[in-house]
Every structure is written in structure tokens, then in C-alpha cells.
Amino acid sequence: DIQMTQSPSSVTASVGDRVTITCRASQGINNWLAWYQQKPGKAPKLLIYAASSLQNGVPSRFSGSGSGTDFTLTIDSLQPEDFATYYCQQATSFPYTFGQGTKLEI
Amino acid sequence: QVQLQESGPGLVKPSQTLSLTCTVSGGSMSSGFHWNWIRQTAGKGLEWLGRIYTTGSPNYNPSLKSRVTISVDRSKNQFSLKLNSVTAEDTAVYYCARQNIYMDVWGRGTTVTVSS
Hints:
The structure holds two protein chains of two kinds. Chain A is built from no helices and eleven strands. Chain A has strands at residues 4-7, 10-12, 19-25, 33-38, 45-49, 53-54, 62-67, 70-75, 85-90, 97-98, 102-105. In chain A, strands 2, 4, 5, 6, 9, 10 and 11 form a seven-stranded mixed beta sheet that branches. Chain A has a four-stranded antiparallel beta sheet with strand order 1-3-8-7, with no helix packed on it. The mean pLDDT of chain A is 97. The radius of gyration of chain B is 13 Å and the shape is globular. In chain B, the strands form two sheets. In chain B, strands 2, 4, 5, 6, 9, 10 and 11 form a seven-stranded mixed beta sheet that branches. A four-stranded antiparallel beta sheet of chain B has the order 1-3-8-7, with no helix packed on it. Chain B has no helices and eleven strands. In chain B, a hairpin with a 1-residue loop joins strand 9 and strand 10. Chains A and B meet through strand 5 and strand 10 of A and strand 5 and strand 10 of B.
């Protein structure tokens, strides 16, 4: 299985800050990577697909980059509604696997 | 707008079979997507269980050691999950999700507890 490792596990930030979350795959996955946002009691929500493409309806302050094994999710100018847990997921081979999550806290 | 809703028992006894159904509304299942099951626990995080195409063979997570079966009923716009021989480790929130390469529509999730 491809292991997905996120860092940090948690991060504390303030409204207006810029935050970067990293995801590393245990082997190359080209750009077959998605980022999801999850709020307590809710299902994950797709933010970014193909490593850098913004899902319809997602604010442009979210951006993704990377290819191969190293990827980043950046959130510019944090808004109150952005405080949540973020997960990466590889979609290059079965079984699909997720990172352990990064909790973004105030 | 497509919506997914999971349904099934919230409590299952150890060694029995967990059975869940995902109902797709607002769109047809015959429109070329894959339909997935994912579960979430505090200990293991998000775990992909498997998927099925509306007209194709399913794909499963090998870690479930052949305990899982996913099937589709296009006439009812539903797909289902069966997990055999459950233990307490199968206690989780179970989600169904549509996949268009990536999982873009998710159900709200349903909590299943395995306990006697």
C-alpha cells in the first residue's frame, strides 16, 4: 500500500494567516492526489484534485501543488470557516489511502 | 444536484454481517461514475473499503481479507456494502461517495457500532 504522511498533525493559526500543509507519498503518484476538508460531524469535502486543480465552488484562497511524492496545500488569508481537519488522498493505485489528517486550529 | 444517503442498522453483533445501503438521488447511477465506501475511526482515520462501477467489477481493499462485498442495484439507484464477521474494530462512521476520478460527492455518514 502507498503510505500518505501529512505534516504537521496540527497547526494553530489566526484569521488572515497563510497556512501550508504537506503530504508525502511513500512512492511516486504523479499528480494523482486530492485534498479534502472535514468539519466535525460532517463528511469530507473535496477541495483540490489532480494535486492542483480547484474543485468547483471552492474559494480561490485554497491552492495545491506538487508532483511525484511531495505535495502541499496552501490556504491564503485564513477565514473562520477554514478551521477544520484536512486530509490528502492518493488515487493512483488500490487500495486508495489517506493521510492521517492535519487539524487546523485557532 | 446528486445526493447520497447511507442507511442501515446502527448496531451489529460481533461475528455477524454489517449491511449498509447508499441511495443516490438527484441523478442516475448509470452515468459513468464509480461508487465507493469509506469508513472513519479515531484510531485508523479514513479507510477506503472498496468501490463498484455501475456495470463493472468491484475493487476491494485487500486489508479486509475478503470480508467485504459491494453490489449495485441500478433499478433502485442504490449500492450496498456487506462486511462479514465483524469485530469491535469495525466500529466506525461509514460513508458512501461518488467518484469521478476523485470522490466529489459524499453521504453524511452513518455510525455503526459492533457490540453484543
